[in-house]
């Protein structure tokens, strides 16, 4: 019994540490999203989280360490939301999922616009090899997921068997990446509408010729 009582405070302390780390990640995401990686200072990041700078360094080591943790944490959450949204369509109709990839991607963006801005900051800072690896991992994960959808549609006989699965997948990725840039550059809504039509045109080009 005495040993159990001694163990309890340590358990609560670890939980407080995890909660504090989560708070710092959420706060840092807000700072990086409204500013830039270069402009965000450790003092601002600590102040937003209501912790001291030494506490921030204790958990993440540096500003870059914190930025990489934000990218990893929320990039994974963002991908999970997108995958779930598209997978729900794919379970019912694989062609419907492929036709609405951009629509579902935009839906995910609306649910978490801050993460998208942080991902864009990562692209800007990609000269740093650690940040480049992190954003590359995120894009590769998205690519592999879409490739699985394209491959499934091909195996089920919906797509032209002579078309390269990789080329077809990169077509979708190019639309996703162009949508990211259109948002960050504040391009007109007409471009967003054009992308939806591009998605439909691309799928028609991949389909088996039924004539």
TrEMBL record:
Keyword presence, Transcription regulation: yes
DNA-binding residues: 41-60
GO molecular function: DNA-binding transcription factor activity; transcription cis-regulatory region binding
Transmembrane segments: none
Domain called HTH tetR-type: residue spans: 18-78
Keywords (A to Z) from UniProt: DNA-binding, Transcription, Transcription regulation
Pfam families to which the protein is assigned, alphabetical: TetR_N (PF00440)
Protein name as it appears in the record: TetR family transcriptional regulator
Organism: Reticulibacter mediterranei
